[in-house]
Amino acid sequence: MSKLNAEFWSERYLKSETGWDVGEATLPIKQYLDQIENKEVKILIPGAGNAYEAVYAYRNGFFNTHILDFSPVPIKTFQNRYSFFPMKQIHLADFFYHEGKYDLILEQTFFCALDPSLRPAYVEKMKSLLTSNGKLVGVMFDKVFEKQGPPFGGSREEYLDLFSPHFEILKLESCYNSIAPRMGAEVFTILRNRM
Fold it and tell me: Where are the domains of the chain?
């Protein structure tokens, strides 16, 4: 969908049309990070927006956390708000052209923002960005929306078909700690790269 480009998202940020933005890192991501003992893992948050998850991770000792977004508006806001965050770990780029290797990629509202026609390419790109046994962890919608997205919904069955050829499905279950407006409409996923 050509309209879902950097300009589209920049306009949404400039007009404060950011219904997905809850103003903080969500509980599923925070609780997952809280149980990780190895603080040296290299983390990527694609489609990071205001990147609250990155701030939470960094403030909790995950100093090798990277954010990526192709809209300059949230990137600039993030840089102004969090001057302590290393500039070299802030990537203004298109996800599909980003290069790097990460131990952990956090998924929070990025997948649902992409046109569904891009989902196979998303899976391939995630696989290429993750190290051997690297993990893709986060939340995805477990519902279909009545109106045209974004956000774009999906189902567990779709995710199994999409991810299982490339990832070991460690967890794909109802998210018990979603924010109230999304309760019962999200699945929590832990997917390990299959090399």
Answer: 24-66+94-193
